[in-house]
What does this fold into?
Amino acid sequence: MDRKHIFRTFFCCLLCVHIAFADSLQEYDKKIEQNTRQIKELDRQISTLRSEMSKYQQQEKGILSELDNTRQRISLTREKIRLQNRELELRRAKQAQLQKDYERAQDEGVALIERYEKRIVSAYKLRPARQTDLFVDAASPREFYYRIKYISAVNRADRQLHQNIKSNMTLISRRRTQIQQEAAAIRDRLAALQQEQKSLDKLQADQEKQYDKIRSDKALLAEQLKEKEASRKAIEKIIEKTQQDKKAYLARLEEERKKREVTEAPFSSKKGKLPWPAYGNIVTEFGRQVHPVLGTVTENSGIDIKSAAGNAVRAVSDGMVVTVTWLRGYGNTIIVMHDNSYYTVYSHVDNISVIQGEYVDSGQQIASVSSDGSMDGTLLHFELWQEQEKLNPRSWLR
It folds into this structure.
């Protein structure tokens, strides 16, 4: 009976290990499927923008629309590349998990076969004449009954052991096939990633040509400034609309703080103490600015921080994300609401990791610095508002 107990324990362990691996692999498949759906949606958006480009090229002053179209495609293509890299990581992790599962199954297969061989030797030694003796020599009906029960149990264990060997061989074969399939999928994804990078390089080259055309044409520059001014007003409208729902946002903020046991000082007390949203130097100050080419006076609603592409963009305080959008002249833009109706705005960003309605911690990375929407290279445009009033961010940063 002890041998049966050991065997059953061994089989249960084998089954548990198999189930554990199966669950892990299913989780990888689920993540890969979600990632693939996101990539398909990006493909749809990129295709729509590509089809619109020919329309802009036929217009007399369509260069600004072309530029916006190119900027959006660059942003979407970067996001697609990020998702493709994530899928590669998932597939490589899945392949490693399959390899471990395969090697473990091989080791367990050797142990099962050795156990089966020992059972065959034992069965051979227990010849038919001796099997009969087991029943004839029984001292009592009770002993006879238990001997029959023992032989039946041994036979069931042998059949189960044989079935486990077959199942193990099937698992080994399946894992071998899955490893080969993942290897082929990884090769395909690498090729697709290289192709997408070429597409991004071309879009960036097109963008530079479009920038050159605009910089050399004062009328286009003036038009571009008008579009940027319209986007400034769009940010103001978003904040104005959010103010109407501020009670709900502030209630969510307090709820999230309690859930996470976060204690924050009032935002109004953080003047001169806020961490910088990105590492770098201010290249454009808050307030009135004279355009270097047109000589016109424009209003900068925030500050521009020159920073290397890919540098982290972090929330300066905890809060609720009220919008993630794309605006002409600003590119990808995130607006976060803090307590007492304070807002921070982060533009020219990429690799956005937050969504509307999400709580963010103070110092949490929400995106990375990019040139998205910028004609002046990679920089972060950062704004600070209290309700409808624009504040100078420099005086709030430490």
